[in-house]
Hints:
Belongs to the short-chain dehydrogenases/reductases (SDR) family. The protein starts with 8 loop residues before the first strand and ends in a 6-residue tail after the last strand. It is globular. It is α/β, with parallel strands linked by helices. Strands 3-2-1-4-5-6-7 form a seven-stranded parallel β-sheet, sandwiched between helices. Helix 1 (about 20-30) crosses helix 6 (about 210-220), helix 3 packs parallel to helix 4 (about 105-135) and helix 4 (about 105-135) packs parallel to helix 5. It contains six helices and seven strands; from the N terminus they run βαβαβαβαβαβαβ. It has one domain (about 10-230): 3-Layer(aba) Sandwich (Rossmann fold).
Amino acid sequence: xxxxxxxxxxxxxxxxxxxxxxxxxxxxxxxxxxxxxxxxxxxxxxxxxxxxxxxxxxxxxxxxxxxxxxxxxxxxxxxxxxxxxxxxxxxxxxxxxxxxxxxxxxxxxxxxxxxxxxxxxxxxxxxxxxxxxxxxxxxxxxxxxxxxxxxxxxxxxxxxxxxxxxxxxxxxxxxxxxxxxxxxxxxxxxxxxxxxxxxxxxxxxxxxxxxxxxxxxxxxxxxxxxxxxxxxxxxxxx
Length: 238
């Protein structure tokens, strides 16, 4: 029997566009109440306005930075104050700097690791008590770059290899408290990532609504079953 998602709550980091927005849209359509974060207050609010036109669930935007633990704590607290609980936390926020190691700057390295890896750590630390209370779900968005390395990807590979391993270890910790934990590892997705502008040539790629449906399916699955790591590829490479 599929789980009813109406009136459940979610917090999605980096949810104003791309994968995060696709997940938020799918959850709102199912009746979930969703908070999305962005470092830009206007982007978070604009995206939440669009989400509120989609379906039965409600959305609101939060200005927050995953690189700042206090900011993550405040985001979780806002969800609790508004809706009384947190059922799902999606650690999605991420960036990419790609360059040969001789050209990769210290600032680019730290921004990548601090956002993509430390930000995921901050997210679960900030949300742990609330997820324990609700016996909720923690989902991280890693990448196929979390198991497959490539030239000019040293910072990004390091961050995503870290997220993949981190999430699998966390899964073993938090399931003792009734929290489910999954990492989703997409390949090519049609998003704005790395300054890309989605267009009709992206039709072969994974679409953000596909990943949104995947999160809905995970949430609706019987709690006794846990797909702990999911690799996702376009059916036919472009």
